[in-house]
Amino acid sequence: MRSNIAHYDLIAPNSLDAVLQILADSPDHYTPIAGGTELMVALGAGRLQGKKLISLWNLEELRFIEVTPDAIIIGAGTTFTDIRQHRVIAAEFSILAQAASWTGSIANQNRGTLGGNIVNASPAADSPPALLAYDAELTLISTRGPRTLPYRDFHLAYKETALEPDELLHSITISRNYKGYKTYIRKVGTRNAQAISKVAIAVLARVNKGRIEDIRIGAASVREYPARLTATEKSLTGKTITPESIAAARATILTEVRPIDDIRSTAKYRAAVAANLLEEFLLSLG
After folding, report:
1. Residue 112 · residue 216 · CB < 8 Å
2. What is the pLDDT of the chain when averaged over all its residues?
3. Which of 50, 176, 181, 202 could cross-link with 218 by S-S, CB 3.0 to 4.6 Å?
4. Phi-psi bin for 121: left (phi > 0), alpha (psi -120 to 50), beta?
5. What pairs with residue 211 in β-bridges?
6. Residue 190, domain member (yes or no)
7. Can you give the pLDDT at residue 48?
8. Residue 193 and residue 274 in one domain
9. For 56-100, what is each residue's pLDDT tens digit?
């Protein structure tokens, strides 16, 4: 049943400090909304529970990309178009740029924000696998001050995150230390574009003389939230690429993923595809 828009209130403070103060004063009353590409769908479908919305759109304090010698810092209000068009991201963080190009239509990319994609916490979200593979760090802010945590620790359960009711996601930091890493990202969906993923995998690996010294695997649509596949990483670290090590990695990923059956796919299919994508990447290293 479609929502009645008259039952909802929207306020749009003109500064980040004002937003944080409102959240501090009434943390359970306001739902932050940035580009709205997810919340407006929920609103139209009658599924948006929060009746009081606070807009983050056009807050310059949240929409920025800062490049330092050691890292790139992306404001939570940065759009996927901003990410796709950024020179340093295209050159050094190609799998994040690729994920940004998958996120809906051009109109969605113009409105949708990286922070919204993270905080919405969909198990099938496009950007999390890349951010997990890059071992991104999140900065959360409130009137109590900032705090940081690894992105891999942000998702706790289905649609549940480490974000406190009075907090906002401020920025995402990625280290610039992946020179020489092999990269891989694949999204399997019903269509090549504008489709929710059945399975998505992003991988970074440092390989020396055929031996995997370091590997990070981020995945979507294989658990109840976007996740690092740490057991599979451990099974590959220190190994050379052989038929035996690939078979062992396939066996491990099949035990680590916990996909579901839904209208887009079956759990059995998702698990098999995840193993196939991992094998495709490993074979490319040979």
Report:
1. no
2. 91
3. 202
4. left
5. 208, 240
6. yes
7. 67
8. yes
9. 998 999 999 999 999 999 999 999 999 999 999 999 999 999 999
What backbone phi and psi angles, to 5 degrees, belong to 190?
-65, -35
Report yes or no on whether pTM surpasses 0.90: yes
Percentage of the residues of the chain whose pLDDT score is greater than 70: 93
- The closest of 48, 76, 44, 50 to 63, measured between CA atoms, is 76
* Cα distances (Å, whole numbers) of residue 214 to 61, 132, 217: 35, 14, 10
Place of tokens 């606070």: 54
For range 40-46, the mean pLDDT = 65
Tokens read off for 87: 């020179």
Same domain, 111 and 170: yes
Two structure tokens written together for 80: 């996927």
Structure tokens at 100: 């940004």
For residue range 179-192, list pLDDT tens digits in order: 999 999 999 876 55
Number of domains in the chain: 3
Handedness of CA 17, 51, 75, 57 (dihedral sign): negative
Q: What is the pLDDT of residue 111?
A: 87
Range of the domain at 94: 65-175
Question: Residue 103, Cα to own-chain centre: how many angstroms?
Answer: 11
Domain final residue, candidates 152, 175, 198: 175
What average pLDDT does this structure show over 104-130?
91
Q: What angle do CA 48, 158, 116 make, to 5 degrees?
A: 55
Written as one string, the DSSP assignment of 56-88 is: -TT-TTTS-EEE-SSEEEEETT-BHHHHHT-HH
The domain boundary, picked from 175, 207, 233, lies at 175
End-to-end alpha carbon distance in the chain? 53
Burial (0-12, 13-18, 19+ Cβ within 10 Å), 42: middle
Q: Is the dihedral of CA 101, 104, 107, 109 positive or negative?
A: negative
pLDDT at 208: 94
